[in-house]
Specification:
By secondary structure, this protein is an alpha+beta fold. It is built from 4 helices and 7 strands. It starts with 6 loop residues before the first helix and ends in a 7-residue tail after the last helix.
Length: 134
């Protein structure tokens, strides 16, 4: 069975998210961000908050996206605290990942009913040349 991309890091991130959710539930995003910072630090992960990530189109920088966290300079993470995440939330997150240089993004929703962690990988598609269908 193939290993997941950044499996060890995402395992720690998921654990940190569950710790915050189990303690605080679904509250304001800023409060979740502060609590998650504590958990990520305790897990020994390097991270930055609110760091602009460059977005590209055909190799040209076209803008910036500011995720809630950039972890180990490999993964960006976006927090949501609302009753549910929508298809629009997921599509927008996917589009940001595709336009960035990152291979992995986590969309984490702290809903009143449960914690939802969506894992998005955009890796192999970046290596394909236009017109190459293989």
């Amino acid at each position: 069975m193939p290993k997941l991309l950044y499996e060890d890091i995402t395992y720690k991130i998921r654990g940190a998210c569950f710790s915050v959710y189990n303690e605080l539930g679904s509250i304001r995003e800023k409060t979740i961000e502060k609590a998650l910072s504590v958990e990520l630090e305790e897990a020994g992960l390097k991270f930055e908050t609110q760091v602009p990530v460059k977005l590209h189109y055909k190799g040209i920088e076209i803008g910036k996206y500011i995720p809630d966290f950039v972890i180990e300079d490999k993964i960006f993470l976006e927090l949501k605290s609302k009753p549910h995440i929508t298809k629009d939330d997921m599509k927008q997150f996917w589009d940001y990942l595709k336009q960035s240089e990152y291979k992995l993004g986590l969309l984490v929703a702290f809903t009143p009913e449960k914690l939802i962690i969506k894992r998005y990988v955009y890796d192999e598609a970046r290596n394909k040349k236009p017109g190459n269908s293989s």
